[in-house]
## 1
Amino acid sequence: MDVISLNNVSVKLGGNNILNDLSLNIAQGEFIAVLGPNGAGKSTLLKLFLGLIKPSSGAISVLGQTPRRGNDSIGYAPQNRMLETDLALRARDVVGFGLDGNKWGFGWPNKTRTELINQALKAVDTLHLAEAPIGQLSGGEQQRLLMAQAMITNPKILLLDEPLSNLDIHHSQEIVSLSVKLAREKKVTVLLVSHDVNPLLSHIDRVLFLAHGHGAIGKPDEVITSQALSKLYGTRVEVVKSLNRVFIVGAET
Ligand SMILES: Nc1ncnc2c1ncn2[C@@H]1O[C@H](COP(=O)(O)OP(=O)(O)OP(=O)(O)O)[C@@H](O)[C@H]1O
Ligand SMILES: [Mg+2]
């Protein structure tokens, strides 16, 4: 069964067409990279799955339902969210918000709660920062806390908006490995937005490339080609492969 399905979905924001006639199906346990230039609609697409934005036309189904806000089955790490610089807030509090989001702190015995938070902190290599005031943490450390916050409820779908953007190679690889593990072992469907496909290339099942309101989805070898991307962008784009890396040349950002 498809976990996410879009049928001719269009999104208009402020009078502009952001996404046009997008159709796709994503299965349980798939690990998908979402790529495309600034303003292509990558974050908009995630917000569509979260029910934060409504399509102007077309049909969308997430976990068999019309998307609604506050769904515990979806974990979301937003893009570039500056964490509160309130010094009283500790790293473990930020991760704990992932549990309380829709419940305002009810329903979790203290011991279970602490244990869940510790596990999530550990998964992103931040247990040693648990008591640190978040205002003092680096951008990359904050980024990892957002990932911990997104995965703490054991969601069926994990939507990660540029989780690698502030990370060094080591921590970037850790987030990718963790995503792979969740997809393979727990059958979590992971959509990871990125500007560089290279760290993801040997791990993802498919890529979704967005540009100019249109999308192309498929295996990296099918989508990241000069032909497919030139068609998507409507202009000449060259895909150059070298040293096991791909470079996309001529795709304006
Ligand atoms: N509420 C809104 N009203 C009007 N336009 C909007 C709104 N939200 C987003 N947009 C526009 O929609 C387009 C897509 O935005 P989106 O944030 O989805 O891009 P993106 O692919 O995530 O880009 P980036 O790589 O910079 O994060 C942008 O041109 C943006 O200005
Ligand atoms: Mg974005």
## 2
Amino acid sequence: MEPRRSGLTLRVEPGRTLLDVVREAVPGVAYSCEEGWCGTRETKVLAGAPAHHDSVLGEDERASRTTTMICVGRAHGPRLVLDG
Ligand code: FES
């Protein structure tokens, strides 16, 4: 995972969430439910294919692959570039 604005490249091991890894690298990141239903941790996707596991996004938003909830979302493929 690569949060573009921060310039960081972060490795997400199996069993961890994108949010877990971002929180370690960027203290103070806002989040709330961590279950994919509040929308607090919605993050813009700049490249790559997000695997959605939230209950916030509609079908059109999921299909657009332009945003994801990093508390529950994963990636299809080896790389996901986020705006963060
Ligand atoms: S923190 Fe609530 S949707 Fe991710």
